[in-house]
Amino acid sequence: MTSDEPARPAAEVPADAPSTAVGLPEAVGVPGAVGVPGAVGGPGPAGGSGAIGIHAEVGLPAAAVGVPVRRGMRVSRPPRHPRWLVDQLPVGMVQSDFFVRFVALFQEVASTLLDDADLVEHIPDVTVTPAPMLQSLASWIGVDVVDASLPEQLQRTIVASSSRSLAHRGTVRGLREFVEMLSGGPAEVLDGGGVWREGDAPQDVGWVRVTVAGTGHLSAEEFAAMIRDEIPAHVRIELWVGSRRVLSTMEEERDGR
Predict the structure, then answer these.
(1) pLDDT at 53 over 60
(2) pTM summary value
(3) Is position 140 within any domain?
(4) Is 111 contained in some domain?
């Protein structure tokens, strides 16, 4: 059916009129958007004063404006109440000033122990673990080259890199990653291993040649010692730093050293 009545103009809604989302007044029926100051319907920009925002249609908290959200952020434990032990005393004991101060002494000592216990979960994290723990963490994965005399950051890098390449230890890939981690630059690793037809294999396959541009934070002798520890015992190694050969177990065997 058609009507001869002219169409009625749409009613103009004032800008400051309250929200009537989902058919309910004032966002789910609560004045001022669930009564939270600074939300939709409250004073401030966009109807808010910067406090917790409320979605204008369903009354749900909206994301805070201007606050970056990062995935994987570390959330620390909430601070322990300064009277966590004293407040557990019976009412009659709390009324004694001497007894409260006496228990507070034990509370102060116990708080330091609990703070240490709260940090136990971070011990395996090489980025934050105390420096004396790095050698222990390295020993857990069979890495013996971490020494307290090395720079602390280098110790952390060695443990982190060794744990990532643990599955490839003893291979060309694992050795290359280890050498590049120590030197801080690209490394070339050649070895005598390979796959051949029966009878075509060369007589000597137990050798490896490593070439780097520099030794990073280590001296040439320290670098060579760490590389030697990473090579299987039956494999001969030749180490070149630039154009200088700093290690050759082939010559040592030939000379009987």
Answers:
(1) no
(2) 0.49
(3) no
(4) yes
